[in-house]
Specification:
The chain is of the alpha+beta class and about 190 residues long. It contains 6 helices and 6 strands, in the order H-H-H-E-E-E-E-H-E-E-H-H. About 5% of the residues have low confidence.
Length: about 190
C-alpha cells in the first residue's frame, strides 16, 4: 500500500473511532437506580447470601465468618440518604480513664480506614466502626462489594479496637471535667 493511501485509511479509521460528541452523550439517558428503602434492605441482604436478622426496628444484623472468625455487622438506612454499616467493638466502661495511647492509636487508624471511622457511642459505651454508603445508584452488587470492603477493614485493624487496649491502668487518671462551652472570644483587631 502506498504511504498516502495508508495515511488516508488511518484517518478514516480514526474518524470512525472518534469519541462521542457532547450532543451524542447528552442524548443518552443515565441509568437510574432508585435508593434502597428499609423495606427492601432485608431482602437485598438475603439475596446477597447473608442471613439478616432484624435486631431493632429497621436495623439488620449480618454475620460474616472468615477464617473461623465470625464478625457481626449492623446495616440500616438513615434519612433515605445513606446505608450505614456498623461494627460494635470494645466496651469502654469509663472513657475518662482509658490509656491515652489507645485513644491516639484509634485516631491515627481513622486516617487509614477512612471513610470508615471509629466513634464512641455515648449510650451503649462501646467503640464502634461506622461507614456510610451514599444511597444513590446503589445496586446489590455495589452494596456487596462495600460490605466486603468494610469487613476487610474491620478485620485488618482488630488489634486497634480490641477491648484490652481500653482497660484502665495505674497510669490512667481521670481527666478533670471540661468547662462549659461559651461564645468564642472576639478576634483581635488588626491595626
Amino acid at each position: 500500500m502506498r504511504p498516502l493511501a495508508s495515511m488516508i485509511l488511518a484517518l478514516g479509521v480514526a474518524a470512525t473511532c472518534a469519541p462521542a460528541s457532547h450532543a451524542q452523550l447528552s442524548s443518552i439517558a443515565p441509568v437510574k437506580v432508585a435508593p434502597i428503602v428499609t423495606a427492601d434492605l432485608k431482602k437485598i441482604l438475603a439475596d446477597l447470601g447473608f442471613q439478616p436478622e432484624e435486631t431493632n426496628e429497621n436495623i439488620f444484623s449480618i454475620t460474616i465468618d472468615r477464617d473461623n472468625l465470625p464478625m457481626t455487622y449492623r446495616l440500616y438506612i438513615l434519612d433515605n440518604l445513606y446505608v450505614w454499616m456498623d461494627k460494635t467493638c470494645a466496651m469502654i466502661e469509663t472513657p475518662e480513664i482509658v490509656p491515652p495511647a489507645a485513644l491516639v492509636r484509634v485516631l491515627k487508624e481513622n486516617e487509614v480506614i477512612g471513610p470508615a471511622h471509629f466513634a464512641l457511642h455515648r449510650t451503649d459505651k462501646h467503640l464502634h466502626i461506622y461507614e456510610a454508603i451514599e444511597n444513590r445508584y446503589l445496586t446489590p452488587a455495589v452494596l456487596r462489594k462495600r460490605i466486603d470492603a468494610f469487613d476487610a477493614k474491620v478485620r485488618k485493624c482488630q488489634d486497634v479496637w480490641k477491648e484490652d487496649n481500653f482497660k484502665a491502668t495505674g497510669a490512667s487518671l481521670p481527666l478533670p471535667p471540661l468547662p462549659p462551652l461559651t461564645s468564642p472570644p472576639a478576634p483581635p483587631s488588626l491595626k
